[in-house]
Every structure is written in structure tokens, then in C-alpha cells.
Design a protein that fits this description.
- Chain B: It comes from Deinococcus deserti (strain DSM 17065 / CIP 109153 / LMG 22923 / VCD115).
- The complex is a heterodimer of chains A (452) and B (464).
- Chain A is of the alpha+beta class and 452 residues long.
- Chain A has ten helices and 20 strands.
- Chain A has three domains: 11-93, PmbA/TldD superfamily (PmbA/TldD fold); 125-162 and 171-221, PmbA/TldD fold (2-Layer Sandwich), CATH 3.30.2290.10; 226-452, no CATH class.
- Chain B contains ten helices and 24 strands.
- In chain B, helix 1 (5-15) runs parallel beside helix 2 (73-86) and helix 3 (123-137) packs parallel to helix 5.
- Chain B has a domain at 231-461.
- Chain B has 464 residues and is of the alpha+beta class.
- The chains are: A alpha+beta (452), B alpha+beta (464).
């Protein structure tokens, strides 16, 4: 470590430099580079409480030596740091076990997607600050039972993704996101409830903080007066957002990597009925308004929509180049990694269960049971290896299809495949989560509830 | 020295040109290694270099934060100008005298020094440790074993406009095993992942074999388990990682980031009874070599041992710089952040319920119908309401004071402040477990811990 830091290259220069050095050394190399600038503004009690400007970039390297991958990454883009990163990737490749199906590909051209819109260049900082302040103030003043608005923020992000490899591939895309969310805390008769609402867009001018704030307060207030939930098996309706959260937790079941490692309960079931005929599930990275839309995946493979479950039948898994080669199929363009850190695995983009034909209100018609509007604790309480879940839940008690009263914190437990197989009705409206998963509301005949 | 003193002084002065009361520079150069063994073969080898700097300005208690990977002199000056203008026009800094800052070097005394430093140990040595763990996990019905190895060396410089200058090196090593037992269509996983702020010598005390064996034991024990019942029941929670329940349900709402927003149910309970006499709880950054050890926090303050609850009475919150300004409680060396991309916030270090005077057997014998949650999984809490949830990775029925059949799929839900009062028995077998804690300033290594405890009733979410 020295007291002077040498000049840094741009990510584009770093990509070229690394590929040139790799070719000179006879190393097959893939470079994945990201550059992101973003603004994050939090408001509390009528003032900006936090203002964050972020500029981050780095390169992820993947070297291929005798069918073995070695990884490394660096945020220091000085030439000597890039050389070190290349050395490390090669050293790692020499340690790792060879993999069948390992290879670098110069993929066909990706689709032309506009994920950038008008950009944020014309938007002043003051306008962004105003969004954060409006969110907080509107939520605070919406109802006397709002005691504070602990969480509320405006965020935007302007990013560029580059991929290149020594087989001649070189491509990139830019994307833009503007987002806000708010979580007001409401209180009545010693009960505290907090709910969140949010909005995502690629055009700043579409943001509507007032609507978001009012909706968040409405959702929180609706939970006041909660009574204990009973314990036992009951008919249940999952809201679209709640089902989307469940599908998100269990999306690893569809990963070709989890399948080949024996960690998916769907392994070996391609072509079989795994869900109710009412269920059709797709993953589509090309949706113009999808939060996880992209023209190509982290290997540079072009994006195309993939149908995972069609009318209840399992039709495909998600694949990257290597898992596809081993499964005897083509990459679906779902190579994924945690930025330039981490390793290339498989992951969904925009995961969507298609809407059905039943009007939303009719999905719950006649039900005496629970309406589950949210689950939490999924990182520990949902097991994608087995499909089992046991989660904290929130929601309402339904009598004859109508909301009777909100419920105190309760649990829901079951198995995702049993839930999907037991779906009796599917609403005609899709709800999206901030994690880019969309689903309609559904009704099931039985769900295990833990309450008093 | 990571950066030249004159440059740092210039950057801090430049950053305050818009009228900020306080400026702080945090620079880091972190090298990590990640290895994954699947079925005895090294499948992934990675790691790299996290490298960047963050600048924090305070205008009163308002925070402006900016960061960059361009840590050249011009890159840092540009960052300082950007951060100053982000909240510009609030006035001019008083320029008392012409000189720069006269930095007051904080002598950072490490609580522990690594003997086998991860940067000098060969990858083959690390691989050998993983193979030992993998072999030990291949027992009983275990069919699939994954071993993950992680080490991290984070070098940091923290300097601020009050003249503070602190440098530190943080070393961490962790080995975790995930074992899946399978019999026909039955499948269960077991996980164990201890870690420490130590070099590879950590695995002399906690051997790779013991880590593999424990993961396999849980998977095998749970393979033929029945579903847990649902409803309110008395629960005995195991020691070590069982402490995650206190971490989530109470620890987070004792952080000033929650208290200052009035988003904590404990905000107005200072000095008051919030638990039974048998409960004392501590957050300690000074345990030598512990996973949650902090030589200096990420605001440059030496870490300390903080008694949170003494015999049921709330004695302290966890306080960072901004938390102190907003709540008036003195800083506790709890300002932490994952890396330069986060502004620091009040966070836990090693947080545990202290020893009581009963034995685990006493607690189990006192329950006629309930649950023994021996190994907890992860959990989370909503800071506004204190509502929490936890997965239980290894659970058993307790019938007439005896441990009975294994149970799967149990989770515990409840409310932190209410359930804290329901801890009615504490044993004397305190032990710590390691986890990553995610919150507003990122994901941080923290220890959780406790002796065995008895909670008079918790909502159990099963499906039987």
C-alpha cells in the first residue's frame, strides 16, 4: 500500500487492456465490467436526513484454463492492479476442478432494448430532494394515527454494463432507474403497524410520491385493530404481491445449476404437471418496463422470454452456457452474478406468473379463511431445496369473502409446490414486487396458519 | 500510511467549503478470497480487491455521503467538490488560520493479532481445510456437501476534520458447511459456519472436522422429522446461535438509528425494566479474535464493552456519532459499515445474553408440552413494530420435561419487547455463534450468543 495512488483507467480501457494481456499470455478470458452512478435521498421529519452520491466501478474476470474457471475482481483500475487481478484469475483456474461444458462464446447480437429513456441529465437535484420530502410529508400528514415515517427515500441509478471475451465478443448497454419508497408507522391503542409502498420508473417525470405515500398509509392503517389469528388449516387467498414474494423465494428451483447439483425439488420433472392448470410462469428479460430487464446476460448471451411452466406443466429450466451444455440444451440467457464480485451462476430476470380470468373480487368470493397480503423472514424460513416454508405473515380474516378484520402477526407454513398445485382461482390483475417478480392473486383450499 | 496527510487535509477542507460542520474520509483497500467445494471438488475460486473512499459530511445531524473508486489525488478532490456542492450555499467554513489539519493519530491497539495471516497462507492450505470439513460431513444419510471458505483483509484509514487519524487492519476467516441428507424423497439440510477475526490458526481450535460433523449431525437428525405444531407454546432455545433471537428481536431496536426515529419500542424505556431479573445482555467489540471484534469502529473510536440490560433494566443503547447528536446518549464505539460505499450507522458487534444460574436440563424439565429449538436459522425484525420471525433449523418436541421427537419446518414469530419479558429462565452455558447482519450500513460480521433460555410462550409456526 502506498501513499500515492496511480492513475485509473476507465472500465472500457480496462476491458481492452485485460483482453490484450490475456491474449498475449494465451489465456482465454471474459471481462464483465460495471459502472454506476446514483443518488439516494432520505427524508425524515420534514428534512433531508441523508444525501448520498455514489460512483462505483469495477471489473470481474473469469479465466478459462484446461476447462477450469478462475475468478477475480478489482475496483482498482490502475494497470498494475489489473495485472494482479489477471494473475489471480489464472492462479484460481489452475486450482479449480475442470468442468464439462466450460467455454467462452461469441454470442449472436442481442435485441435492441431502450432501457435508458430520456435519462436523468435534465433533472435537478432540487427536484429529487422534493420527491423525498413530498413522500415523507404526505405520509406524515395523511392520517392522525401516523406517528412517524421512519423510512422513505428517493433513489436513482445510471449504469453501464460491458462484457467482452477473448473469443471476440464485445458489447454493452446502459440503463436508468428512478425509484422511491416510503414506510409510515401508525399507532392506535398500543398497536404499531408499518407498511411500505413504492414506485419504479425509467422516466423521472412519471414518479408520483403523493400516490405512493397515501397508499402506504392506507395499507398500514388497514392493519390497525388486528386480532389474533386462529391456528389450523384454512382456505386462503394470497394477494398478488404476496404470491410474487413466495415465487421469488423459490425461484432457485428453476435454476439449471441447482437442478444439476441436486438442490431443486423440480429436478427430473421436465414435461410433468407440477402446478395447477391455471398456472403459467415465464421469465422475460426483455420487458420494456421490467426492473431487471437487460439486452444480454452476464456472459453476453442475448435475452429472450422463457416459459418455465405452461398450464401447469414444467417446460424449461433457466440456464447459463455451461449448465445448458451439460443438460444438452441451449443457454436461456440467464447467467447471473453479484455484480463483478462473485461467480457466474444462474438467476431469473423478471419472473412473472401470468394473470388469469377471474376478477380480483371473485377470487375471494365465499371464502371463510385468511387473506395473506405479505410474508417475511424468507431468507431463513423458506427452503428452496425442499420447497417447504414457514414464514411470518400479515393479512386479514375473511368472512364470506369480505374482510372481517386484520390479523395480528401469524405464520403460514406449507410447501410451494403444494400451493401451486392447489390453486383454484387466479385473478386477472398482476402485482409486481420491487424485486421484479409479478403475480396475480390466487385462492387455495388449505393453508396451515399459526396464531394463538 | 494509505494516503498522504496533506492530501487528506486538503480534501477534508475542500469538502467543508459548503458549510458542513464535520467531514470524515474513509478509505479502504480490501482483499478477499472465496472458495467453494462441492462434493469434494473445488468448484469456484474467486475473490479480489475492493478499493475506494467515502466522504461523509454532517450539517447538524443531516448526512451527506459520497464515494468513489478513483482514489487518485484529483479523484478525491473532485469527490470533495461534488459532496460540498450537493448541499452548498449553507455558508462558509470558518477558516481559522492558513494551515491544514494537524492530525491526532489514534493509537489502534489490536485486541488480537493473526498468526497465520490469510494473505501469506497458500490457497492449497485453505483447500486442505475445506477437504477435511467435507470428508467429516459425509456421514449417515448425507448425500451432498458444500463447503465455503472466506477470508478478508480490510485495511482502512479514517480521518476527520476534528483531526482524528486512525488506521486499522481487520482480518477475518470463516468456514461453513452445508450438508443435505436424503432418503428417497425425504431431504433435509444442515448448516454450520463458525468464523473469527483471526487467521487460519482459528481452525486449530475449531477444527474443520468439527464443523463438517455438526452440519451433518443436524441434517441427519432432521431427515425423518415430523412437521412442527402451530400455536403458542413454551420454547427452550439453545445456546450459541440461539442468541440470534435476542439480536433480531431486541438488539436492532437498541441501535440509535432506530431509537432516534422513535421507531423503537425501547426509545423511552432507558433505566426502566424491560426484562425479568434473570436477563442481562451485553454488546462487546473487545473480545479478542471474535467474529464481531472491532479494534476501532468505522468512525475511528476504540470499541468497548457495552452493557445493554442489567438484571432486566435497560442500561444503554448502541450509539454512533449521529446517534449521539440526536439522542444525547454517549457514543459506544458502535459506528460500523460494510465498506466505503456506506456511511456508518450504529450496529451490533458481539451481542449476547449473559450467563444465568440454571442448567439446560433445569429448563427442559420445567416444560410439560413445548418445543426445544436447539439450532436457529436466520431471522429478521421490523424495527418500527418490533415484530420478528426466525426459522428453527433443529427442533424437538418437549414432553413431560423430556426431549422427544425431532420437528421440521418450525419458525418462531412474535414481538421483541413483549417476548423479552417472557424470558423466565437462563442457564449458565453461554456460547457465541457467527452470522452476517444486514442493515442500513450493509452486511457486517456479528456474533450472537446466549446460554440456553426458557421463553414462557412464543407463537410457533408449524403446519401440524
Amino acid at each position: 500500500m502506498t501513499a500515492t495512488v496511480t492513475e485509473q483507467l476507465s472500465i472500457d480501457q480496462a476491458r481492452s487492456y485485460l483482453l490484450k494481456r490475456a491474449k498475449a499470455r494465451g489465456v482465454q478470458l471474459e471481462v464483465y465490467a460495471l459502472r454506476n452512478t446514483s443518488t439516494n435521498i432520505r427524508a425524515f421529519a420534514g428534512e433531508v436526513s441523508e444525501f448520498k452520491l455514489q460512483a462505483r466501478q469495477g471489473v470481474g474476470l473469469r479465466a478459462l484454463r484446461d476447462s477450469a474457471w478462475g475468478y477475480s475482481f478489482t475496483e482498482n483500475l490502475a494497470q498494475n492492479a489489473l495485472d494482479r487481478a489477471l494473475d489471480m484469475a489464472v492462479e484460481n483456474a489452475e486450482l479449480v476442478a475442470p468442468e464439462s461444458g466450460a467455454g467462452l462464446v461469441a454470442w449472436a447480437e442481442p435485441p435492441a432494448l431502450d432501457l435508458y429513456g430520456e435519462g436523468l441529465s435534465g433533472v435537478k437535484v432540487e427536484q429529487k430532494v422534493q420527491v423525498a420530502l413530498d413522500l415523507e410529508r404526505t405520509a406524515r400528514e395523511a392520517d392522525p394515527r401516523v406517528t412517524s415515517v421512519p423510512y422513505g427515500a428517493y433513489m436513482d441509478s445510471d449504469s453501464e454494463t460491458l462484457v467482452g471475451n477473448t473469443e471476440g465478443l464485445s458489447r454493452g448497454f446502459k440503463s436508468l432507474q428512478a425509484f422511491h419508497f416510503v414506510a409510515p408507522l401508525v399507532s392506535e391503542n398500543g398497536q404499531n403497524k408499518m407498511q411500505r409502498d413504492w414506485q419504479f420508473t425509467r422516466e423521472f417525470t412519471e414518479l408520483d410520491p403523493t400516490r405512493t405515500a397515501l397508499k402506504a398509509v392506507e395499507k398500514a392503517v388497514a392493519l390497525l385493530g388486528a386480532r389474533p389469528a386462529p391456528s389450523g388449516q384454512f382456505p386462503a387467498v394470497f394477494s398478488g404481491g404476496c404470491l410474487a414474494d413466495l415465487l421469488d423465494l423459490f425461484s432457485p428451483m428453476f435454476s439449471g445449476k441447482m437442478v444439476e447439483e441436486g438442490k431443486s425439488p423440480l429436478a427430473g420433472r421436465l414435461g410433468e404437471a407440477v402446478a395447477s392448470e391455471l398456472v403459467t410462469l415465464v421469465d422475460d428479460a426483455t420487458l420494456p418496463r421490467g426492473m431487471n430487464s437487460r439486452a444480454f446476460d452476464v456472459e453476453g448471451c442475448p435475452s429472450v422470454p422463457v416459459t418455465l411452466i405452461e398450464a401447469g406443466r414444467l417446460t424449461a429450466f433457466l440456464h447459463n452456457a455451461q449448465t445448458a451444455a451439460r443438460a444438452g440444451t441451449q443457454s436461456t440467457g440467464h447467467a447471473a452474478r453479484m455484480g463483478y464480485q462473485g461467480v457466474v451462476g444462474v438467476g431469473p430476470s423478471n419472473l412473472l406468473m401470468l394473470a388469469g380470468k377471474t376478477p380480483d373480487a371473485e377470487v375471494r368470493a365465499g371464502v371463510r379463511g385468511v387473506l395473506v397480503t405479505g410474508v417475511s423472514g424468507g431468507h431463513a424460513g423458506a427452503n428452496p431445496v425442499t420447497g417447504d416454508f414457514s414464514l411470518q405473515a400479515e393479512g386479514f380474516w375473511l368472512e364470506d369473502g369480505g374482510v372481517a378484520h386484520p390479523l395480528e402477526v401469524f405464520t403460514v407454513a406449507g410447501n410451494i409446490l403444494e400451493v401451486l398445485a392447489g390453486i383454484e382461482a387466479v385473478s386477472d390483475t398482476v402485482e409486481w414486487t420491487p424485486d421484479a417478480v409479478g403475480a396475480p392473486a390466487v385462492r387455495v383450499a388449505h393453508l396451515a396458519i399459526g396464531g394463538n | 500510511m494509505m494516503l498522504d496527510e496533506t492530501l487528506v487535509s486538503d480534501v477534508l477542507t475542500l469538502a467543508r467549503a459548503g458549510g458542513a460542520d464535520f467531514a470524515e474520509l474513509f478509505m479502504e483497500d480490501t482483499v478477499n478470497t472465496t472458495l467453494r467445494l462441492h462434493q469434494g471438488e473445488l468448484k469456484d475460486a474467486g475473490g479480489g480487491n475492493l478499493f475506494g473512499a467515502g466522504l461523509r459530511l454532517l450539517y447538524g445531524t443531516r448526512v451527506v455521503y459520497a464515494y468513489t473508486n478513483d482514489v487518485t489525488a484529483s479523484g478525491l478532490r473532485d469527490l470533495a467538490s461534488a459532496v460540498a456542492s450537493a448541499r452548498g450555499g449553507a455558508g462558509e467554513v470558518e477558516r481559522g488560520g492558513a494551515g491544514g489539519l494537524d492530525f491526532r493519530k489514534v493509537k489502534v491497539t489490536p485486541h488480537y493479532r493473526a498468526r497465520q495471516h490469510p494473505l501469506t497462507a497458500a490457497k492449497r492450505e485453505k483447500l486442505a481445510l475445506m477437504r477435511r470439513a467435507s470428508g467429516a460431513a459425509q456421514v449417515g444419510d448425507v448425500k451432498t456437501v458444500d463447503v465455503n471458505y472466506l477470508d478478508r483483509v480490510q485495511r482502512v484509514l479514517i480521518a476527520n476534520s476534528e483531526g482524528l487519524w486512525a488506521e486499522d487492519e481487520r482480518v477475518q476467516s470463516r468456514l461453513s458447511v452445508s450438508a443435505i441428507a436424503q432418503d428417497g424423497t425425504l431431504r433435509q439440510s444442515g448448516f454450520y459456519g463458525p468464523g473469527a477475526s483471526q487467521g487460519l490458526e482459528f481452525f486449530e481450535t475449531v477444527t474443520p472436522e468439527s464443523i463438517g460433523t455438526e452440519a451433518a449431525r443436524i441434517a441427519n437428525a432432521m431427515l425423518r422429522a415430523d412437521y412442527a405444531p402451530a400455536g403458542k407454546l413454551p420454547v427452550v432455545i439453545g445456546n450459541e446461535f440461539g442468541g440470534v433471537i435476542f439480536h433480531e428481536a431486541c438488539g436492532h431496536i437498541l441501535e440509535t438509528t432506530a431509537v432516534e426515529k422513535n421507531a423503537s419500542v425501547f426509545a423511552d424505556k432507558f433505566g426502566q425494566r424491560i426484562a425479568q431479573d434473570c436477563v442481562s445482555a451485553v454488546d462487546d467489540g473487545t473480545l479478542p479474535g471474535s467474529w464481531g471484534m472491532v479494534n476501532v469502529d468505522d468512525e475511528g473510536m476504540p470499541a468497548q464493552r457495552t452493557v445493554l440490560i442489567e438484571k432486566g433494566i435497560l442500561k444503554s443503547f448502541l450509539v454512533d456519532r449521529v446517534g449521539e447528536m440526536k439522542t444525547g446518549y454517549a457514543r459506544t464505539g458502535s459506528g460500523r459499515r460494510q465498506n466505503y460505499t456506506f456511511a456508518p450507522a450504529s450496529r451490533m458487534r458481539s451481542t449476547f445474553i449473559d450467563n444465568g444460574d440454571q442448567t439446560p436440563d433445569d429448563l427442559i424439565r420445567s416444560v410439560s408440552h413445548g418445543i426445544y429449538a436447539r439450532k436457529m436459522g436466520g431471522g429478521s425484525v421490523s424495527p418500527g413494530t418490533g415484530d420478528y420471525n426466525f426459522a428453527v433449523n433443529e427442533a424437538y418436541m418437549i414432553r413431560n420435561g423430556e426431549i422427544a421427537e425431532p420437528l421440521r419446518g418450525a419458525s418462531l414469530v412474535g414481538n421483541g419487547a413483549q417476548d423479552l419479558l417472557n424470558i423466565v429462565g437462563v442457564a449458565g452455558d453461554l456460547s457465541l455463534g457467527q452470522g452476517m447482519c444486514g442493515s442500513i450500513s450493509g452486511s457486517l460480521p456479528t456474533d450472537v450468543g446466549q446460554p440456553h433460555i426458557l421463553v414462557s410462550e412464543i407463537t410457533v409456526g408449524g403446519r401440524a
